[in-house]
Structure formats: structure tokens, C-alpha cells
Design the sequence.
């Protein structure tokens, strides 16, 4: 016999606690942001102007920075730990193109067992350390069949198909109850980033990114549904970070590397090794572009 809606709790599987049906906003874990800031300040007094969250296979960008201070995230109270290949789990403070930058080298995902408020903790920490600009990068599957592997896509908007938000729960001081998401990715910055890509001879696309919880890849039927919803790419990250940044008043730029076509658009099975391989292939182009973006912000 089926349980009545709203009567019995059930386990969503990816969360370590029961949640009532249709309740996608689990209680936030209590994280001491002040303790995390203090732990970082024990290593460095750097005040980054920009934070870059490095997606799958892109961690090497941080290696090109100068005057670096590397802090394992295991040394930071309340910081979630990554368990995914290609996500190192380090904060790297350094100078890139003359700018003070914080690299988030390795992110965490909902499928690792974290609620969305925890996924956004690195953004809250970057903001508390002084960063007001945020660049989010990711590896994504191409929903638009024209977005072949290796395509670089500027994110113009997102679809939150996980139906959860890092701002759910008790209101934090300085954050709005209902953040306005009319422009989660800064339009003027997106235009400028596109112009910089063209100056370098790069062809980039614009598109809408759709967030799913994962870790399973989408089915062919889901790929078709996502396309009808208006998505151009699909992935398992980025959206909670963009929502949190918007709530904090940060300016955000989003870039996806299309590492594979979504299910149903190609003949071979999807796998994480393919994601990593394509990420390596485009790394030089993406790194040069990101450096130009950082350099441009220093002259703005």
C-alpha cells in the first residue's frame, strides 16, 4: 500500500537523514564561518579580489599562479571534503596576471552526500575573505547537439532541477530571504569575457546550464526533456554556488567545458574518464582565456 503524501518520512538516498516527501530543503549543518576564516588567516593574510572555482580537470590553472599559499581543505573547520577524481581539495592563494586570486581547487557535489548549503560553503568563505568577483567553471554534457566535445560555453542562465537552494533554512545575517535571480551570471561581464575570447581567436558559445543531483548521467529521455526545458548543457554543480554568490551580492561569471554529448546524442556510453580527457584537451585554451579575464579585471 502506498504511503500518503506528507505522512511518513523517507530517505532520499543521497542525504544522510530522512526528509519529508517533497521537502527538498534539509536543515542546514551548523558551520562556523568565523572559525574557517581564522584557520585560513593562520596561513595567509591575502585578500583576494576574485575567486575561481575550478571544475573537473582544471585544477592545474592554480599551479601557474605566483607567490602561492596552499591550504588543504581538511585543515579548515566546516569545509566539505571532495571525494571525486580531479578535485584536489585545496585552497590556493596567489597572484595571477597581477591580481590577488583565490583558487578553489576541487569542489564538492550533492551526490557525495552534501546538502546545498554545504556545497556553497566555499563561496561564503571566499566572500568572507574579501572576494567580490567569482568565476565558476565546470565540465558539462552538451544538450544542444551543436555543442560538440571541446566547446567552451558562457553560462547565461541556469535551471535548478535539483529543486534545492543553499539559502533555504534560517536566514543568515546580511543575506536576503528571497535572492533575486533575474541575472545570476553577470551579463556585462559575460559580454566582456566573450569579447576577450574573440580577441584570442576562440569560438565560444552561450547557453543555459541545467543542474541535476547526479551521480548517474542523464537518460536519453531526460536529455530530450532538458532540451525542451531550454537547457543547452547539463551538469552536477555550479548552480548552488551561483545562487549563494547572488545572495551575497557577488558578481559571477560561469564557463562550461562541454566534455561530452548528453545521453542519446552519441553512440558510446558516458564515463568520467572521457570528461577528464576532454578537459585536458581544452585546458591550454581555457587557461589562456581565464588568464585574459583575470588580467582584464585588473585594468577595468
Sequence:
Amino acid at each position: 500500500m502506498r504511503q500518503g503524501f506528507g505522512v511518513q518520512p523517507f530517505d532520499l538516498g543521497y542525504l544522510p537523514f530522512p526528509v519529508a516527501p517533497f521537502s527538498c530543503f534539509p536543515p542546514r549543518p551548523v558551520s562556523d564561518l568565523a572559525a574557517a576564516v581564522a584557520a585560513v588567516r593562520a596561513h595567509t593574510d591575502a585578500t583576494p579580489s576574485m575567486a575561481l572555482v575550478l571544475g573537473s580537470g582544471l585544477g592545474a590553472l592554480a599551479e601557474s599562479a605566483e607567490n602561492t599559499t596552499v591550504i588543504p581543505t581538511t585543515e579548515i573547520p566546516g569545509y566539505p571534503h571532495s571525494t571525486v577524481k580531479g578535485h584536489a581539495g585545496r585552497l590556493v592563494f596567489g597572484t595571477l596576471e597581477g591580481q590577488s586570486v583565490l583558487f578553489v581547487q576541487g569542489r564538492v557535489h550533492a551526490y557525495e552526500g552534501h546538502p546545498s548549503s554545504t556545497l556553497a560553503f566555499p563561496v561564503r568563505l571566499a566572500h568572507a575573505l574579501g572576494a567580490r568577483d567569482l568565476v565558476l567553471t565546470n565540465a558539462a554534457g552538451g544538450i544542444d547537439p551543436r555543442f560538440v566535445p571541446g566547446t567552451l560555453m558562457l553560462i547565461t542562465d541556469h535551471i535548478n532541477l535539483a529543486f534545492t537552494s543553499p539559502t533555504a533554512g534560517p536566514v543568515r545575517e546580511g543575506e536576503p530571504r528571497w535572492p533575486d535571480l533575474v541575472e545570476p551570471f553577470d551579463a556585462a561581464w559575460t559580454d566582456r569575457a566573450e569579447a576577450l575570447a574573440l580577441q584570442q581567436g576562440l569560438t565560444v558559445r552561450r547557453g543555459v546550464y541545467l543542474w541535476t543531483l547526479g551521480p548517474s548521467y542523464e537518460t536519453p529521455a531526460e536529455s530530450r526533456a532538458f532540451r525542451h526545458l531550454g537547457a543547452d548543457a547539463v551538469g552536477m554543480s555550479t548552480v548552488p554556488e551561483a545562487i549563494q554568490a547572488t545572495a551575497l551580492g557577488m558578481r559571477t561569471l560561469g564557463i562550461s567545458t562541454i566534455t561530452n554529448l548528453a545521453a542519446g546524442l552519441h553512440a558510446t556510453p558516458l564515463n568520467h574518464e572521457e570528461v577528464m580527457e576532454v578537459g585536458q584537451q581544452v585546458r591550454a585554451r581555457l587557461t589562456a582565456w581565464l588568464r585574459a579575464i583575470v588580467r582584464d579585471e585588473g585594468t577595468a
About this structure: Helices lie at 33-41, 116-119, 121-128, 187-199, 220-229, 239-247, 272-299. The chain has a mean pLDDT of 85. The chain has one domain: 39-299.
